[in-house]
């Protein structure tokens, strides 16, 4: 039995943020890992949003933007790539 959350926690402890993110499905775990998104490849961060549903994506974008200007550029890239899926109105609200 492969325990994804347990492996995710081990990856977090080792500072392997991208690997940890790949193991989680719960938005609270994902948000916790993405506190370190500045240490992840921007391409990974953008592509990761393709695995999330609309609600998770909006919640994670809000969380990332609340952490300061370091994430703004990657959040803009996410909004550009997934604007059809996430909705223009919702994205405008996230960036306000």
In short:
It is built from 7 helices and no strands. The chain is mainly alpha-helical. The mean pLDDT is 95.
Explain what the structure shows.
With 96 residues, the chain is mostly helical. Helix content is 70%, strand content 0%. It has seven helices and no strands. The protein has helices spanning 4-13, 17-23, 27-34, 42-48, 54-65, 72-86, 88-95. Helix 2 (17-23) runs antiparallel to helix 3 and helix 5 packs parallel to helix 7. The longest helix is centred in the last third of the chain and has 15 residues, at 72-86. The model has no long low-confidence stretch (mean pLDDT 95).
Structure keywords:
single chain, 96 residues, mainly alpha, 0% strand, globular
Overall body shape: globular
Helix percent band: 55-70%
The largest pleated sheet is described as: none
Low-confidence stretches: none
Structural class: mainly alpha
Rg, please?
13 Å
How much is the average pLDDT? Answer: 95
H and E order: HHHHHHH
**Termini distance?**
44 Å
Note the topology.
Layout: H1 4-13, H2 17-23, H3 27-34, H4 42-48, H5 54-65, H6 72-86, H7 88-95
